[in-house]
Amino acid sequence: MSRPRLSAVAELLKPITWFPPMWAFGCGVVASGASADGRWALIVAGVLLAGPFVCATSQAVNDWFDRDVDAINEPQRPIPSGRMPGAWGLYIAVLWTLLSLLLAAALGPTALAAAGFGLLLAWAYSAPPLRLKRNGWWGNSACALCYEGLAWLTGAAVMSLGDWPEGRSVALALLYSAGAHGIMTLNDFKSIEGDRQTGIASLPVQLGVDGAARAACIAMALPQAVVVALLLHWQAPVHALVVAAMLAAQLLLMRRFLAAPVANAPWYSARGVMLYVLGMLTSAFALRALGGGGLA
């Protein structure tokens, strides 16, 4: 059996998708309030775990089990194009799963538990019999939790040397996970036809283009509004104002997205999502200013 080129392997692992969990891990590090002195090796290893390992694994798993869908939607991808021959896509997915677990184990039991849960979600999202992505509500929830909340909590736990983060950090992680459900929906607009033909009930398929666009906007906006309220309650008014400004800018951008969702989803992703993650970081700095997320 011929082997894939390294360029095809890199394309399968999709480095461009690694940014959200790496960013969320960094937010957890900031929110912990712990000093980075003497812990840079842990931080770097954690960032690698979140992006080039766990997230990359999820991409390989998804491409293997989505190869028939991709043959319709994106035939240029490594597996349907033949640049990833035979079962190499599956082999890489399994190998990256094992490597991710090995790295997580080196970071301690809490990181191992978080990474293990994230990897289970990655396989459950794409692989039968669960294949959570067949329903946009479940599938997008799994991705959002893995990409944002789980990565945030892992960052906080690594900095606290394995202890579970305190309630404020957990609350922000879960809220930004809920908002990321809308971000995941933005990615579904590019594959409506293939999803419909192969029985994948993404939100654009279930709700229609306009309904899914409204659902994505609501899912992104409401958790951020709650974050603003919590920051005010926690006596962090400056940080709350910054997050509110980020949200207001997103609401303005959403008007253009809602006018033509399929055409403008990539445009909004490039702008609105950046404002969203900047708000995440601002919230993390708010916890740091308040003394850190603390320990349970």
Automatic annotation (TrEMBL):
Pfam families: UbiA. GO terms for cellular component: membrane. GO terms for biological process: chlorophyll biosynthetic process. Gene3D superfamilies: UbiA prenyltransferase. Keywords: Cell membrane, Chlorophyll biosynthesis, Membrane, Transmembrane, Transmembrane helix. It is a multi-pass membrane protein. It is found in: Membrane. Signal peptide: none annotated. InterPro entries: Chl_synth, Prenyltransferase_related, UbiA_prenyltransferase, UbiA_sf. GO terms for molecular function: transferase activity, transferring alkyl or aryl (other than methyl) groups. The chain crosses the membrane at residues 12-34, 40-65, 86-105, 142-162, 207-232, 238-258, 270-290. Its main location: membrane. This is BchG. It comes from Aquincola tertiaricarbonis.
